[in-house]
Amino acid sequence: MHVAIALYPKFTALDAVGPYTVLAYAPDTTVTFVAGEPGPVTDDRGTLTLTATAAFADLPRPDVVLVPGGPGTMEALQDEALIGWIRAAHEHTRWTTSVCSGSFLLGAAGVLEGRQATSHWAVVDQLAAYGAQPVRERVVVQDKVVTAAGVSAGIDMALTLLATAAGEETARAVQLAIEYDPQPPFPMDPAYTDQALKLLG
After folding, report:
1. Active-site residue (options: 100, 139, 151, 165)
2. Cα–Cα distance between 177 and 171 in angstroms, integer?
3. Contact assessment for residue 98 and residue 69, using Cβ atoms and an 8 Å cutoff
4. 62-75 pLDDT tens trace
5. 100 in active site
6. All domains of the chain, ordered by start, with CATH?
7. Best CA proximity match to 5, nearest among 23, 31, 43
């Protein structure tokens, strides 16, 4: 199975690295970071750079497309090379997936029309503009389109894919290997919404 994770300026690092870590452990799986052209792509904090080892044109038919989100999503909606690659690759994928606001890029490529989909809690309702049915769930599976909620939900999504692709035993083993056992020190509290939105920019 070949997984292509799309990169674009100001992506959120965990959106890409979380699923990468899960799927890179999977047997018989290759994960490739792709971008408009090979080279470094910097995240939304401006301090972490991942290297795309292939251009979109180099990997037209991956088994899995994975699109992270981030503050750069809105600018990326104007990136015809990225949107066109998602649209064309989707015709041949086993799964087309997104994390956080990456779902807007799937929407721009026409992938979400008539499907339930999710995104970060701050923007999920806006998916309706792309013909999607927004739902507030951690992971949403609609045929071969799989969308994850905000940031850390990409790990859940990747484990969901892995269970289907390689079996639940493999997914459980990877979950244990990476010690993914969410027990956050604080409950989700809407009282901090304004502060959270400021952090998101």
Report:
1. 100
2. 10
3. yes
4. 999 999 999 999 99
5. yes
6. 2-200 (3.40.50.880)
7. 31
